[in-house]
Amino acid sequence: MKISDLLRLSFDNLKRRKGRTFLTVLGVIIGTCSIVMMVSIGVALDKSYDDMLQNMGDLTLIEVYNWSGNSDVEPLTDEVIDGFMAIEDVRVATPLYQPRYFNSRLVSGNNDKYRSWGNIRGIKREALEVYGYELVEGRFPQKNDKDFTVVVGEFFAYNFENTRKKYPNNYIDAIPDENGVYPKPFVDVFEDEIKIQGYTYTENGETVVMEETLNIVGVIKQDESKGYETYSGIIMDIEDLIALEQEYMKKNDIRDENKGKKREYDQALVKVNDIDNVDAVIETIESYGYNTWSATSYRNEMKKQTQMIQLILGGLGSIAMLVSAISIANTMTMAIYERTKEIGVMKVLGCELKDIKNMFLAEAAAIGFLGGVVGLIICYGLSAVMNTVGASLMGGGDTAISIIPLWLALFGTGFSTFVGIISGYVPAVRAVKITALSAIRHD
Amino acid sequence: MIKVQNLRKVYKVGGEKVVALDNISMHIPPGEFCCIVGTSGSGKSTLLNMLAGLEKPTKGKVSIAGKMVSKMTEKELAIFRQQNIGFIFQSYNLMPTLTAVENVAFPLMFKGIDKKIREKKARKMLKEMGLGDRLDHKPGELSGGQQQRVGIARAFVGKPKVIFADEPTGNLDSATTEQVMKMLLEISRANNITFVMVTHDPELAKMARRVITLKDGRIVSDTRDGISIIDEDLLLAQHDETETFTSENTEPDKNITKEKAEDTNDENA
Ligand SMILES: Nc1ncnc2c1ncn2[C@@H]1O[C@H](COP(=O)(O)OP(=O)(O)O)[C@@H](O)[C@H]1O
Ligand SMILES: [Mg+2]
What we know:
The complex is a heterodimer of chains A (443) and B (269). Chain A has helices spanning 3-16, 18-56, 78-84, 127-130, 229-232, 238-251, 275-287, 295-338, 340-348, 353-393, 406-433, 438-441, and strands spanning 61-65, 90-96, 104-108, 114-116, 120-123, 135-138, 149-153, 161-162, 194-202, 205-213, 215-220, 234-237, 267-272, 291-293.
């Protein structure tokens, strides 16, 4: 028997009992809706978590510390950190240096009238690019650039105060006008000379003890996930920063207790090539005895939670689907009782057993598929309503309450069809067992 | 075409045995029109059902076109019926949702024949049977006689080797009965189809060349053109019988059977 004929026969049979078919399909619609809606809520939850994490930090960045106090674990020296680079999937590892003894400020303009307190971050020059900073203007420092070649945060220039002016005119705020144009700051980072000064406090107030001119070659885009330095800080080569501190210490007669020893860092940063490899790299680093922190640790925890919630929601939805499966099985069984004679006649006329089975399976599958498709259309509607109502209740914001991705739509219809076939299986096998003699006996 | 050997059918009804058929042997050659006649309860339907493979015999063999129908599985039977057998029911048994054309084309659909082709054949068949103006009517819109003509067209459309019919005129008035009977005789002769039909009406049965009469589950007469052929037919039927059959046969009319069987065995030896 041709498939087209088989399907036509099945559809004709469904059409014969419109009322009953409708009710059964309705059951599947409800089942599909409850599963898809529940999962869609889970998906939305998952996505809102992911969005939240995006703002919490770069997911491919691992912070490494040595908090063990265990002498077996080597301190975070340059060699150790270079060693991290050898771990698979690590793109770059750099020490992070925060100066301990360095009171600094930034000055520019006549008589240093523009002043700022910049946050200085020291990382390896070659790590800058790989680390994921994005340039808005200029370029990254290169290996052969002179000392104190740096990049600065996007709003670095707006941090300068005009010490000659009074509040509120001493600062220019980085707030764009209605056309999206930012006001011109006091200093131009590329044109004006900007110096970094080390100072101490004396009876006369702040006394400058040292001064270096910065060579600013680039401005990087603000990125909350990376850190405050992208807003208004200075990102400097680690050797330059250490040199500055050393000089400052010498000028102020501060003894360097680490002199002659290998330099030890409090913190290192490791950048991994892909989110999915972060866990493996963390595991390796922790196996050496170091402590790590990464935004992915939250992510994994949250993923587990959302998966759990999704499972519970999906499970709740499945109950409705189970009921509809029973209803399909019931409908098919009834259909077989009603059509016992007809099936007998078909057998006498030479219909093969597999065709009889397939005919009933196709009917059950059609009920499942139809319910799935209609259910899915309703789901899209429900989802849109929920998101609009939800957004207005939560005062705007673009966090969706329900998201139906393509895979869920496919899964929804696929699953309902599958449930149809499964529910129709036992009745179909029963139909096959009806004897040809029923054609005559049921007179 | 159809060979039956020592067929026996026993029904168990509430612990009691009902012997519906016993010691039935016969041979229906290709193209013969055969009527099985007898009073109600004589076992006609039971015999026909077993010939058509709708029921399994308790004992004995049925073969059609050399194929042992009584040994086939359900699956094999379905395909065998599809390829070789047509069936006409007393109560027509047309599909209520299908038109006359679709009903006639129905068995061809099981064979996997294209819709266009099979409906063309069905239309031609129905026109030949005088139903050219009822092609797209549903069974509910047709009279009993018309419905049965659709049923007949459905049996003949695939040009099967054998057609079975259980009281095909049972629900029709006498005028229509005669009309339908003539039609059956004519089409099966024209197409050289072996036709086996059950009826309780001896007058109707007389229209057939071959008439087998049953009584209480046994053949009491078997005639071709009014001449008894019971002996020669048994001879033919037992041609390839085994010894087990002979030894098991302890029924009253064993004398004839046994003699013939022994003759056969001697010949073979
Ligand atoms: N399925 C069955 N179960 C029990 N007895 C049956 C069954 N079918 C037929 N019989 C019995 O077998 C005998 C022959 O029946 P049947 O072949 O229908 O007779 P006919 O068709 O000649 O009227 C009857 O006594 C009937 O009661
Ligand atoms: Mg009968």
